[in-house]
């Protein structure tokens, strides 16, 4: 039997399918294993290169395999799909074979394996975002409930939160509805408490981690954004330049270029939606700060922001600023430098 040197691994909830291949990437056999069965099989296998899609539990298995002398390579699922032999027959075995084929491509882009500490920080960000989503959904349900009884509140969460204590004792509403509103008030208070608790931990990370502190020097990049970025981007040098990081975050237009003609479409919104949302929120604050500054006191970047806003409007400027922030963040992370607002003057084109 050919020596197994490459393995494509398709991770699922209950089973793991492996497609073992030789040094050329040619499949030798495919097996369906349980989680414990996969661990035992991989432990007994001579040193090999494992390819996995960057999905749930992939970073754990990559660290586990590396500790046992194997090489683990993570790939984005969108890069694996084109290598599936049959588009009409998607199953675990075909997926494992596609992962094996994708892994041996010389131009394949791989995802850096996250450390346990980075995963722990991302866990905080994930539950924080989940609780905020639950809070928004609960508030929207409450608005719909109250509208059934002829109660219309103004726009904004504050109006509802201020009105809830009075509504829970209002005779305008049936007893059962007042009882539900009390439960809603308690649930909202609990969600707010949980979000505050995670914010405290995230701010600790932002306070004591030197890398997180460095990226906060950029206007519009607060503790939450800085912490999420450093935990998510394990190695900034995986991106060749800042443009690639911005594209990975979905902050660039979709391209349909051909024959030397550039055709740009809408912003793709690919990549990490959580990070992209944080960067666009920070861009909003940066735009407002630039507009409030007197013209004679604006920096070069603030002048560019104001001119862009006057030319293309608020929405496009917000995306453009988020894109520029992503490029600046890449430079700080990739080169290990502190933020320097006058770094542009050292560029060869600055004196041209």
Question: Can you tell me about this structure?
Answer:
This protein is of the alpha/beta class and 352 residues long. The chain folds into three domains: 6-103, 2-Layer Sandwich (Nucleotidyltransferase, domain 5); 116-208; 211-351, no CATH class. The chain has 13 helices and seven strands. The chain has helices spanning 35-44, 58-67, 77-80, 92-103, 116-147, 157-167, 175-208, 210-215, 223-232, 242-248, 273-292, 300-312, 314-335, and strands at residues 6-11, 16-21, 27-33, 49-53, 71-75, 253-255, 264-267. A five-stranded mixed sheet has the order 3-2-1-4-5. The protein has a two-stranded antiparallel sheet with strand order 6-7. Strand 2 and strand 3 (27-33) form a beta hairpin. Helix 5 packs across helix 9 (223-232) and helix 10 packs across helix 13. The longest helix has 34 residues, at 175-208. The radius of gyration is 25 Å and the shape is globular. The N and C termini lie far apart (64 Å).
Helix content: 40-55%
Q: How are strands sequenced across the largest beta sheet?
A: 3-2-1-4-5
Strand content: 5-15%
Radius of gyration: 25 Å
What is the chain-wise order of helices and strands?
EEEHEHEHHHHHHHHEEHHH
Stretches where pLDDT is under 50 for at least 5 consecutive residues are: none
The overall average pLDDT, rounded, is: 90
Largest sheet: 5 strands, mixed
- Distance N to C terminus: 64 Å
Give the class from helix and strand content and strand pairing.
Answer: alpha/beta
Tally of extended strands? 7
Tally of individual domains: 3
Oligomer: single chain
Q: Please give the count of helices.
A: 13
Broad shape: globular
């Amino acid at each position: 039997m050919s020596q197994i040197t490459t393995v494509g691994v398709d991770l699922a909830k209950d089973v793991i399918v492996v497609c073992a291949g030789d040094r050329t990437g040619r499949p030798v056999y495919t097996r369906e294993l349980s989680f414990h069965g996969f661990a035992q099989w991989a432990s007994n296998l001579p040193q090999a290169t494992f390819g996995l899609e960057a999905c749930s539990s992939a970073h754990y298995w990559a660290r586990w395999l590396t500790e046992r002398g194997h090489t683990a390579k993570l790939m984005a699922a969108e890069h694996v799909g084109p290598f599936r032999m049959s588009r009409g027959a998607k199953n675990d075995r075909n997926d494992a074979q596609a992962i094996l084929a994708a892994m041996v491509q010389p131009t394949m882009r791989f995802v850096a394996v996250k450390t346990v500490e980075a995963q722990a920080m991302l866990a905080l960000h994930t539950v924080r975002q989940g609780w905020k989503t639950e809070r928004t959904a609960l508030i929207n349900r409450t608005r719909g409930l109250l509208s059934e009884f002829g109660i219309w509140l103004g726009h904004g969460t504050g109006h509802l939160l201020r009105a809830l204590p009075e509504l829970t004792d209002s005779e305008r509403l049936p007893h059962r509805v007042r009882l539900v509103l009390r439960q809603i008030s308690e649930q909202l208070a609990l969600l707010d408490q949980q979000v505050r608790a995670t914010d405290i931990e995230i701010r600790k990370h932002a306070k004591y981690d030197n890398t997180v502190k460095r990226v906060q020097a950029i206007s519009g990049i607060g503790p939450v954004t800085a912490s999420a970025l450093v935990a998510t981007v394990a190695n900034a040098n995986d991106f060749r330049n800042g443009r690639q990081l911005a594209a990975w975050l979905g902050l660039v237009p979709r391209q349909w270029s051909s024959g030397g003609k550039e055709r740009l479409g809408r912003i793709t919104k690919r990549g990490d939606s959580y990070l992209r949302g944080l960067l666009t929120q920070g861009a909003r604050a940066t735009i407002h700060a630039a507009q409030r500054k007197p013209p004679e006191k604006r920096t070069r970047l603030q002048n560019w922001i104001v001119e862009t806003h006057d030319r293309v409007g608020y929405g496009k400027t917000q995306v453009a600023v988020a894109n520029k922030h992503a490029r600046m963040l890449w430079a700080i992370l990739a080169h290990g430098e502190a933020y320097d607002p006058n770094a542009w003057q050292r560029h060869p084109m600055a004196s041209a």
